[in-house]
Amino acid sequence: MTRRGLVTFGESLAVFSTQSGKLRHASSVDVGIAGTEAVVAIGVARLGVPASWAGRVGADEPGALVLLRLRDEGVDTSAAMTDQHAPTGLMLKDYRTTDATRSAYYRSGSAGTRLCPEDIPEDRIRQAGVLHLSGLTPSLSDTAAKAVLAAVEVAREEGVPVSFDVNYRNALWEPQDATGVLLDLVSRADIVFAGVDEAAPLGFTGEPVRPEKLLSYLTGLGPEQVIVKLGPRGALAELHGCRYDVPTYPVRAIDSEGADDAFVAGYLADFLAGAPPDRRVRTAAACRAFAVSVHGDWEGLPDREELKQLARAR
């Protein structure tokens, strides 16, 4: 890893999905991987920036699948751990219509929930260009939450920028349990990504939630770069004291899974490449457009040449 690279860690899962209909009616399934930090790492690597993912997977075929797919995408997994005492988490997904998917998670007692401070790759974090974390990881377990905080401390001591995607999941914890942890991480981060649907667990009480108000609220907590994601309507950002309306790209959306992770990957890849703020947000929006155009969490993530093609097509 070079100083310019991305380091991230968290939960990765094996995914078994159908392209249409209920899983019970399927005669075959697609096999893949998921996990917000892993998707971001893949997106950054495809854009030509070094990326490293660390975490725990089980000593099983799903765990081997996770590591193999990440390595095939150019992500460094040498700091990942294989847990001999817990299985890799699973996600089962079916597509009811082109606009509706159903996902079932099997992660109780999984290797990913057993993340702990001893697992964090301290040396890699110290050498990183940015440490990226999400709010999903601390929701997995007390030890995973402690690991996230320990990683932030290592990064801050070394002057490594911290990127934090709120990524709140109400199926994993209640807003009142999440608020203190999320606000603490926002206040310690340099780059923050959040959605308007995450306002309540972030302690924002304005009704209705206006993106510009949420943006000001989060900026007031300390980070110099804040991006409020608005899905197909783009995003609103405040970067180094300047406001940006993030554009959208007119594409036919097929699957929105992984769209926010694609956005984050595009932004961080350009941040690490030294691009100016206006280019970072354009790249983020373009990556999201590619991601929603195909099925899957990460399969549609673009490389640099594809980004150029999209820009020429506008």
Entry keywords:
single chain, 314 residues, alpha/beta, UDP-N-acetylmuramoyl-L-alanine:D-glutamate ligase, 8-stranded mixed sheet, 4-stranded mixed sheet, 14 strands, 35% helix, 22% strand, PfkB_dom, 2-dehydro-3-deoxygluconokinase activity, nucleotide-binding, 2-dehydro-3-deoxygluconokinase
As a percent range, the share of helical residues equals: 25-40%
Which strand-content bin applies to the residues? 15-25%
Radius of gyration: 18 Å
Principal-axes geometry comes out as: globular
Secondary-structure element pattern, one letter each:
EEEHEEHEEEHEHEHEHEEEHHH
Uncertain parts: none
Q: Specify the CATH class.
A: Alpha Beta
The CATH architecture: 3-Layer(aba) Sandwich
CATH names the topology as UDP-N-acetylmuramoyl-L-alanine:D-glutamate ligase
Number of helices: 9
Could you please describe the fold and organization of this structure?
- The two termini are 35 Å apart.
- Helix content is 35%, strand content 22%.
- It has a single domain, classed as UDP-N-acetylmuramoyl-L-alanine:D-glutamate ligase (3-Layer(aba) Sandwich), CATH 3.40.1190.20.
- 52% of the residues are buried.
- The strands form three sheets. The chain has an eight-stranded mixed sheet with strand order 4-1-9-10-11-12-13-14, sandwiched between helices.
- Helix 1 packs across helix 7 and helix 7 packs antiparallel against helix 8.
- It contains nine helices and 14 strands.
- By secondary structure, it is an alpha/beta fold.
- The model has no long low-confidence stretch (mean pLDDT 91).
- It holds the Pfam family PfkB.
- Its EC number is 2.7.1.45.
- Belongs to the carbohydrate kinase PfkB family.
- It is an enzyme of class 2 (transferase).
- This is 2-dehydro-3-deoxygluconokinase.
